Amino acid sequence: MRITELLTKDTITLSLKSNRKNDVIDELISVLDSAGKLASRAQFKKAILNREEQSTTGIGEGIAIPHAKTSAVKKPAIAFGRSTRGVNYESLDGQPAHLFFMIAAPEGANNTHLEALSRLSTILLKEDVRKQLLEAKSETDILNIINLHDQEEKQEEQSMSGKKKFIVAVTACPTGIAHTYMSADSLKAKAAEMGVDIKVETNGSGGAKNVLTQEEIENAVAVIVAADTKVEMNRFNGKHVIEAAVADGIRKPQQLIERALKKDSPIFRGDGTSNSDREQSGGRGIGATIYKHLMSGVSNMLPFVVGGGILIAISFMFGFNSANPDDPTYHPIAEALMTIGGGNAFALMVPVLAGFIAMSIADRPGFAAGMVGGMLATSGGAGFLGGLVAGFLAGYVVVGLRKVFAGMPSSLEGIKTILIYPLLGIAITGFIMLFVVNKPVGALNTAISEFLSGLGTGNAILLGIILGLMMAFDMGGPVNKAAYVFGTGLLANGVYEPMAAIMAAGMVPPLGIALATTFFKRKFNKQDQEAGKVNYIMGLSFITEGAIPFAAADPIRVIPSLMIGSAVAGALSMMFSIGLRAPHGGLFVIPLVDGSWLLYLVAVIIGAIVTAVLLGVLKKPVSTN
Hints:
The chain is of the alpha/beta class. The chain has 23 helices and 11 strands. Helix 14 runs antiparallel to helix 15. It is flat. It starts with 11 loop residues before the first strand and ends in a 7-residue tail after the last helix.
């Protein structure tokens, strides 16, 4: 497939009007939307902004390639925009961006499409191409320039050519569309310039290409891993591995190659555990590292909490004590639901949390120790807090064991993951949990639960306000997740009111946006009004992120409006003493709440109305010029 089958005249604009990053993104999205390439403008923008949060797509040299792979795309396409004066796009080299290629890939994009998209990113590395694009007079000129340089890539066969200086590399970015291939091409070009043999494996959306063989890895001086997503590392056992961001492959190829030639990195021990250079050197801060491991545990725990919580709630529809054989309201279905949801799914919540936190830290060898530590936290009364401690404890215990046994003969390598790490990891984690952690953390856990259960109306409302503000502050970001984790953790301790407040508050931002775009049409353009309709569904489904595109476009007015509405909903939910055992589901689980479902619905509606009215008052009317 030719690139110009994706980049067409109707997706090219030669005179971008915007001079700010978010406005350029909006302008390019409008181009794609007008050309009929998008199924949902709001969802596509959300995916684009999510990619920007991971790392800027302003790659330097005056180029920006915002991109996303999402079901919000109907047809794969590329939008091109040019700004003569330049835009501050937070580029890697700090320079303004002039050339913008927005890549829209559908969720089911095939390899033909992905290969064409990847070729575009490599073409843009050529200085003469950039110069020609800046000087082009028409859309036809742009297409002719791309066509001239668009050549089908052959699968690379290069490998060791007998030189002593041979290195291998892997590049990967979260979407695997642009940065993966630009990083690979930048490394190959610089290696050729330096007289170094290199083979680069690309882990893109279409799968791994130019895959490294074990022989090539063994004969390489060192390995460069330029990636912002997970790469299979165990194959690099015993090699010097330089780990860096995928953008470093684009911007700093010479530095990475020089480090590889000097073997300026630790030897990787491929026993299932990996400490990246970036974490060791401070590239990933301690807070970000802890957050990453915590979210790994929480995301794997949630299906157990959601499924188990809803089953428990359904069992109460037969009667509050209907699962008890000795109660007059007993029903065997209620008992079965309670056994499945509470006795099993919910019982696995803390062990799964701890197991996957440990696995995130120490990979598979940490999983067993984490699971056992979580079980001990549950049986010892340490609950959710104990599970957090167990997960981090088990993970770092196994990391420590890895270092202790690093000097074992390579012939005994396999025995580590099968015997040594499970045996010692479980034993050490278990002893520390039993004799050091469980008692004090259990006491703290009990104290927190009793305090929250005994909150007076005033304090309960204050807690609801705080949780509401947190849920709407960054809508899916770290603050929002902190509130959500707090609520799910309390479910394990039998405290259900904060979770209800959290879900009510999380439903308000998209619902408030939807109401505002419906009743205050003068304050929103046509595209926003259409996107607002989608927010009814997202809000009722407890998908707070639906409000992100609106907040990103006008944060000063929108975010405070969302936070106030969510705070109102959270406060009312706590005031009405509503409890919720299912931490997800939105409208679908409202009938299952503990307390009046009608009052709970009122709390959500009032919060959404408050947000809508504030938006109607604060936002300026859209210009009709």
